[in-house]
Amino acid sequence: MKNVLIASVSLLILVAGSASADQQQFPAKLAGQAILPANTMVPAPADAPEFLKHSGKFTTPDRKRTEALGTVPGKDGARVTDLKLPFDGQPIQGFSGVKTMADGTFWTLSDNGFGSKSNSSDSMLFLHQMKFDWAGNKAEVVKNLFLSDPNKIAPFPIVLEGTGTRYLTGADFDIESIQPVADGFWLGDEFGPYILKFDMSGRLTDVIPTTLDGKPVLSPDNPLLSVPANPAAKMPVFNLKRSGGFEGLAMSKDGAKLYGLLEGAIYKDDGTVETIDGHTAIRVIEFDVASKKWTGRSWFYPFEDKGVSIGDFNMLDDTTALVIERDNGAGTADKACADPKQPKPDCFEAPAVLKRVYKIEFNDANVGKSVRKIGYIDLLNIHDPDNKKRAGSKDGAYDMPFVTIENVDRVDATHIIIGNDNNLPFSAGRAADKADNNEFSLIEVGEFLNAM
């Protein structure tokens, strides 16, 4: 690929209240873009139960079944989007992890479906092999791989337990990150949280619970937790918030180790969350692929003051990696609500402020300590002097004012791919009243990738 040069000089920025006082902001330039429309559906497989032919039947606030197609409006807070549930088919959406392949394609995945375990029992779990025509602005889905558990590997009853095909749904696992390997795929899950392994046909082969410092790591959505029958009895113990499991899953360059990165901080016995140097911190936890066991080694990833979650995580070499860090805001400041406490349908109550890709370093020398944040690019201000963007309204710049941006990987020596999770049909960050499309962008960041 022809390199795209940036005529820009990096500035050393001392960030007040940052997790690393010497972190540096690097320039980024848009080199191409491909957009998959929000309303992109595929039929359920022919051998799937009738129950899966339509999706989103349990997405009202009270989770009551709704069979009539297109009768439940998608909403982002007070704002109503332009798509309605249930859907005819399964949506290709919620992209939540990406991996660059040697043949020029990319593997990615849709997460649990409609945002929670309780509303996603008719949302199928599947992976996507994709191609992008950056010049033609086209995203092509080459293959959809639906996930199943025919050999009854899951240690709990799945939603479709009694069916012949035993397809997996968003009420079984919340898959959020992907690492393709020669014999299949490693995926990170948020419900357990678990590390999952699937073969090349999408069949579940391994479900591995998470342990850290000799203790289990448990989400309130862990299917093996149960509420006691006696109201006076103690509730089950868990140490992650809901949606705090493995948002990121990276693999060492030799394939020997996986690194699971939690989305939420671990809660300690005293009810407080883990911190480091005064900042809330989440864990990078090391997993040995050959033995399929946790090594006992981990590192802390500290959030910025406005950071609340990570979106994706991929290794660059033996010791450095890319991580997306974000706030919970969506939309642009020019369309902010006059009073955030009184949100309205035509404005953003909490515009996006912090959406970044960090380059980090962790190694043998800082096990049990903080990763080093080398520097970052700002996803709210990507240079676009050649007008490559096909979305956004900033002159000379491309921005990603989405609540969730959950795809990043290196493409070559100077470029990365970045993509949003559009939480169909609930997220509307590009426009106040329209469900976000799936935007994938090729970004020139040579200086950032070479930073030390």
Automatic annotation (TrEMBL):
Leader peptide range in chain numbering: 1-21
Report if keyword Signal is assigned: yes
Q: Which domain of life is it from?
A: Bacteria
Residue ranges annotated for the Phytase-like domain, each copy included: 90-423
Q: Which organism is it from?
A: Rhizobium laguerreae
Which keywords does this Swiss-Prot/TrEMBL entry list? Signal
Name the record gives this protein:
Phytase-like domain-containing protein
